[in-house]
Amino acid sequence: MLNNNIKELLKNSKKIALVGHIMPDGDTTGSCLALAYALESLGKDVFLFCQDDIPDNLCFLEGCEKFNNELTPDNKYFDLIFALDCSDPERLGIFKKLLELNEQTINIDHHVSNTEFASLNWVDPNAAATCELIYELIESLNIHIDINIANALYTGISTDTGNFSYSNTTSKTHSIAAQLLTLGVKPEEISNNLYRNNSLERVKLIARVIDTIELYKHGQISTIEITKDMLTKVGADEKESSGMVGYAKDIKGVELALLFKEQEDGQIKVSMRSKNIIDCNKLANIFGGGGHARAAGCTINSSLYDAKIIVLEEAKKLF
Amino acid sequence: MLNNNIKELLKNSKKIALVGHIMPDGDTTGSCLALAYALESLGKDVFLFCQDDIPDNLCFLEGCEKFNNELTPDNKYFDLIFALDCSDPERLGIFKKLLELNEQTINIDHHVSNTEFASLNWVDPNAAATCELIYELIESLNIHIDINIANALYTGISTDTGNFSYSNTTSKTHSIAAQLLTLGVKPEEISNNLYRNNSLERVKLIARVIDTIELYKHGQISTIEITKDMLTKVGADEKESSGMVGYAKDIKGVELALLFKEQEDGQIKVSMRSKNIIDCNKLANIFGGGGHARAAGCTINSSLYDAKIIVLEEAKKLF
Fold this sequence. Notes:
homodimer, inorganic pyrophosphatase (n-terminal core), 2 domains, six-stranded parallel sheet, six-stranded mixed sheet, 12 strands
């Protein structure tokens, strides 16, 4: 069993680095924090690394300020490196370097595309979140799950499953959540922090963005737009424009939702989401992008108007 | 144990009526359907009653068309009546009559305000949903939970807990969900039906309604408005304007959200939601309304403009 190999490596390690992926989400952040608290309870010296800032809505988690975003000369060598929720070395950003500088590396992840880049790889695509694997690891190490660990694990599971609503949610996901609630997790408090903490600017932006929704192909395709001008007018920054494609997708009869977003550099970022049938990855590939069947994206160097025309033309062919 | 008393009553009953509450939601609908399928598998003749139409987003549940909304002369007398998710007899609407005409009545509910109006009452305010109690009952009757029963139970649990996000969600809630997923429930399919099936008119209405949000009391109070004119302009009907108060509540720093909605008759319906501190029930009481600490409402006979002024004035005093 893999956990036994990890146990063995842990036994001989004192100074341990945990690395989350670039543009961190709830799962990589929760995995790192939960494992950090768990290893600290075993007396290890734990160092957290993440290239990019932890998003505001995750900063309620205890310990978020402990992430380092620079590689300093005295923090290059470790007895053991964990990469958590990273499908390939590029996802570690500048901390990819740690994989080269250190011998003992462990890769724990749930992405089917994982390239098994470490000396020990535990990749389980059936897990809804890497946090499910970290829960299993902590349990197998017989470490007491305190409220900080429980909140971190719950956060990763909640964010990667759309709070138990996506198809990756399994019976096991709910069983782990049941355990975490027993340990003191307050679902409403965490949901308020994660999902109900919009800025007024973001809310005003939602109104403008929704207003651009258009339907095509007898209501099976929806489009939605975000321009730099909209952001400026409501005073929102780029980070506050995330997650808008859902408004276009969650319409009755819509199978494929297409978001067109004007980037800082003038290029158009296209996000594609489908409900059941259309292969978004295939559509994104046409424009040099990629992703999964239900969620993919690409970047197009044109005006928003033109990007919409060419993507819609290809999208319609898929029906 | 209550379940044993219910078992006893069931043994001697053949013709059984299940009644849901007026303005049905996922929990009353799910409870009725799940218990109906379970009792039918025991060879009972089951009749479903609900005064009002089952909402569109629940119509994906097998058997929704089986609800009767009239009391016919040949369907007045039963061996046993179940009232499910009904806190008092008024909640049965016209089917309150069944409680008077029949001797053996069972009241299964989770509302703390339940008036224990039946001959046998099983009220558990610790249950997140009446569907949790129906799950327990069906299990204790050793009835096989087929996919129709499982989907109905999951629907009631999901809708009453904000898909596992409200404070009423317990470890038990997740344990039951874990079981139901094992039995074939597909969380994404159900969530798509329940929460991601907006009409385009509703989505366009959301944009207009959000645009009315204003903040008061240093951002601790938010207001949001729905006028008849907005509904007309986007072509939405009244039913499509539900759930909008959430957009005002889910803003950072907001403790109390107030929705002002113009009714058909020109009166203003006020919905109040608070996050942690403010007692909405107390505020609603001032205007002859009521509810709970975190959610309450009232109706005011004035213009929307005036209703906003007088409610805001009282609301500010609570901080």
